[in-house]
Specification:
Number of helices: 5
Helix content: 40-55%
Strand order of the largest sheet: 1-2-3-4-5-7-6
Structural class: alpha+beta
Strand content: 25-35%
Radius of gyration: 16 Å
Largest sheet: 7 strands, mixed
Number of strands: 7
Distance between the termini: 34 Å
Shape: globular
Length: about 170
């Protein structure tokens, strides 16, 4: 790893940690009891392996291999793991666009066995807004929504679908 890449990784990890800290303060205020946020680490990736082959899983993405590749390519990445007590509830990854004006959410997956009624997009959205603001981005994008039902769900939060590019966006 080049020194400049390592320095970028370290610099943006500090920002990601600050976002996680603030999100946890918000979560601890009673908004979603039992929910806490972390960055993605080896323990998280090991826990994600338990999702493989579960019947309610919609996409069988390999988080362990995919995260390592994403991490190497994008030191400015957005990443978030949400835990419901000691159970992994969701994982998400994104990155700033090349011009830096937008923050993309490329992957968001909730555990197929998460507690009924547990909301994982709301804290992810809050973390994205915080990270985008820290980077100076003025737009959020959700890339390639899996189906019309999911797209409609995001639209309830104010996102607008851009059909020709298959993403949703919202201005900050």
């Amino acid at each position: 790893m080049l020194a400049t890449h390592r320095e970028a990784e370290e610099r943006y990890t500090v920002i990601r940690q600050a976002v996680i800290y603030e999100l946890n303060r918000e979560l601890q205020s009673g908004w979603q009891p039992g929910l806490r946020a972390t960055l993605i680490d080896s323990h998280t990736l090991t826990e994600s392996e338990l999702w493989k082959g579960l019947p309610r899983r919609k996409v069988d993405w390999d988080w362990k291999r995919g995260y390592q590749s994403f991490k190497f390519r994008y030191p400015k990445r957005f990443e978030l793991a949400l835990w419901d007590n000691h159970q992994l509830a969701s994982l998400s990854l994104g990155r700033p666009t090349y011009n830096g004006g937008s923050l993309r959410l490329d992957f968001l997956e909730a555990s197929p066995e998460k507690r009924k009624g547990l909301k994982v997009f709301e804290p992810t959205f809050l973390a994205m807004v915080s990270y985008a603001t820290a980077l100076g981005a003025n737009e959020l994008r959700i890339m390639n929504p899996i189906n019309a039902e999911v797209r409609s769900y995001y639209e309830k939060f104010g996102f607008t679908y851009v059909a020709e590019s298959d993403y949703l966006n919202i201005r900050l």
